[in-house]
Write a structure and sequence with these properties.
Elements: H1 6-18, H2 24-31, H3 37-47, E1 65-67, H4 78-81, E2 90-94, H5 98-103, E3 111-118, H6 125-133, E4 140-147, H7 150-160, E5 170-175, H8 180-187, H9 189-196, E6 204-208, H10 226-238, E7 244-247, H11 253-261, E8 268-271, E9 287-290, E10 306-309, H12 317-334, E11 340-346, H13 355-363, E12 367-374, H14 383-394, E13 406-407, H15 412-423
Parallel strand pairs: 1-2, 2-3, 3-4, 4-5, 5-6, 6-7, 7-8, 8-9, 9-10, 10-11, 11-12, 12-13
Length: 424
């Protein structure tokens, strides 16, 4: 059970760990790892898993999750790891660590996040064998790929999409460098998506390329992307289990229309949409995350329950005003409750806040939570402007997060000081 917000837990743990006046506090910090998973995660990121040993105050009978953070599991005594690995359920590690963990008795793994970094002289033969040993228990696999050889990645993908993995519920293919994954999926898209149709339990799919988004139709080797998009659309239309789909590159208008308008089963989407996309008409999109959306297109997303726009491209208050007004219209039409969430960055500019926005916010009856991050690069926001927004939110009948609506990129301590200035 969580009593405080996670940020409070982090403050407590960091205070205990970095307190120089009392060395016993570090022992207290270690012991807190067994309180809840958030404590455990903070402690891992602060201390590093290489600090794990038999004397630590982990309850190893209940420890089921480990993250590699650069220290390496091989620096831990094998005898210590053997206390944990047989019951390990979730693991994040470099591909070079898998063999060692299997030797330590890892046999019940359900979630694997594997960092695959290979040069021109490396092969995937050993990795394929190791993943195969885990196939019977695995449910979710994430590959973060930085590879040089096209053929070796192709062998890994073919192995990974074989029958023995058809029970998987989550697959993530994320390229962190180069374009070997992109070339593989472009050239073998029919094989890949035909195989994925056999994965009847798959609920979460991520395909993320590392590429210049301006090269929308061709990669560096001149491979057309329309075949990939055609095969992807065919897969999306014929699958029946997927609930979540993420892709970080522009998709064709046919795919966009299908995902936003037709009766798709996908409820959680993360996309990069073309400007001028069609209005969202289906009402079962629970969350939509976008790289960017223009002010002119903002109102087209009013049907989405949870809209998150990446802060790299801030919107203006005029765009948000159109969004809120359109949401009000749809609420009157369909009668949905105040269960909407909006999270985006706003470029206020060096002018007073538009009265149209304040009126739309004041009269809004659709929002459950609102998160506004103010663009701070070129302009220091006038706190008096934010006080006007805050006064509306504090008395708003449906917005619940009255103390957390304002987001800043500043440190937590500074954010608290800024917010205190807003509300006081």
């Amino acid at each position: 059970m969580t009593i405080f917000e996670n940020r409070i837990y982090r403050i407590i743990l960091e205070y205990l760990w970095f307190n120089k006046n009392n060395k016993k506090y570090k022992s207290y910090a270690r012991s807190l790892s067994s309180v809840n998973w958030y404590f455990h995660g903070v402690r891992e990121s602060s201390l590093g898993v290489a600090k794990l040993n038999r004397c630590s105050l982990f309850d190893h009978h209940h420890l089921t999750k480990l993250h590699y953070n650069g220290c390496g599991f091989k620096s831990i005594k094998k005898q210590s790891l053997q206390l944990i690995t047989p019951k390990l359920r979730a693991l994040t590690c470099d591909h070079t660590e898998l063999g060692f963990l299997l030797e330590c008795g890892m046999s019940s793994l359900e979630q694997l996040k594997c960092l695959v970094t290979m040069g021109f002289d490396d092969t995937t033969k050993q990795l394929r064998g190791q993943i195969g040993m885990l196939a019977s228990t695995l449910k979710a696999v994430s590959f973060q790929i930085n590879m040089k050889l096209y053929y070796e990645l192709q062998l890994l993908i073919i192995h990974f999409l074989s029958e023995r993995f058809e029970h998987l519920t989550s697959i993530e293919l994320i390229e962190t460098s180069g374009n070997v994954l992109l070339c593989n999926l472009y050239r073998n898209s029919k094989m890949v998506f035909d195989r994925l149709l056999k994965f009847k339990s798959l609920q979460h799919l991520v395909i993320e390329f590392q590429i210049d988004k301006d090269k929308d139709n061709w990669d560096d080797e001149g491979v057309k992307s329309y075949e990939f998009q055609s095969d992807l659309l065919c897969y999306l239309m014929n699958q029946s289990s997927l609930k979540s789909f993420h892709h970080n590159r522009f998709l064709g208008s046919s795919i966009e229309e299908y995902l936003l308008q037709e009766s798709s089963s996908i409820e959680y989407l993360s996309l990069d949409l073309h400007q001028g996309f069609s209005e969202v008409t289906r009402n079962n999109i629970k969350k939509l995350s976008l790289v960017a959306v223009s002010d002119q297109d903002m109102h087209k997303l009013a049907m989405v329950k949870y809209l998150k726009v990446h802060p790299k491209y801030p919107n203006s208050l005029a765009g948000i005003t159109q969004f809120l007004n359109r949401q009000q219209q749809l609420q009157k039409q369909y009668g949905f409750p105040a269960d909407r969430v909006l999270k985006c960055e706003v470029n206020i500019g060096q002018v007073n806040i538009e009265p149209e926005f304040l009126e739309a916010l004041k009269n809004n009856t659709t929002l459950k939570r609102l998160y506004l991050s103010i663009k701070e690069d070129d302009y220091i926001v006038d706190l008096d402007d934010l006080k006007v927004i805050d006064s509306i939110i504090q008395s708003h009948p449906t917005i619940r997060n009255k103390d957390t609506w304002f987001i800043t990129k500043q440190k937590l301590k500074d954010r608290g000081q800024v917010y205190n200035q807003i509300v006081n």
